[in-house]
Amino acid sequence: MRIWVDAQLSPFIALFINQNFDEIQASSMRSLNMQFSTDHEIFKAARAEKVVIMSKDADFVKLIELYDIPPQLIWITCGNTSNSKMCSILKETLTQVASLLKNGEKVVEISG
Description:
- There is one protein chain.
- It contains 4 helices and 5 strands.
- By secondary structure, the protein is α/β, with parallel strands linked by helices.
- The protein has a single domain (2-110), classed as Rossmann fold (3-Layer(aba) Sandwich).
- A 5-stranded parallel sheet has the order 2-1-3-4-5, with helices on both faces.
- The radius of gyration is 13 Å and the shape is globular.
- It starts with a strand and ends with a strand.
- Residues 1-109 form the DUF5615 domain.
């Protein structure tokens, strides 16, 4: 599974995922040179690449409602939190989240 980590989340989150989850490859928007792209541009590119978006932005939920999948979405709704706390949350939830996405869920929310 490939995940694009949206710009409101630290690029460190992508690094953490890559170091802790063997079956998931994560890339930050910065590493993709897309940190200044609009949500719609990111959505279109993610659709073409068939990747999962990880974001705090509810606009991606609306785009999926409008255009369907791909891309699927990991929607982070736990508010502002430290990288350490976010990594702890992901360590506890990301394996199950990945399973839900593989089984066809369009949007999986992580609320912490």
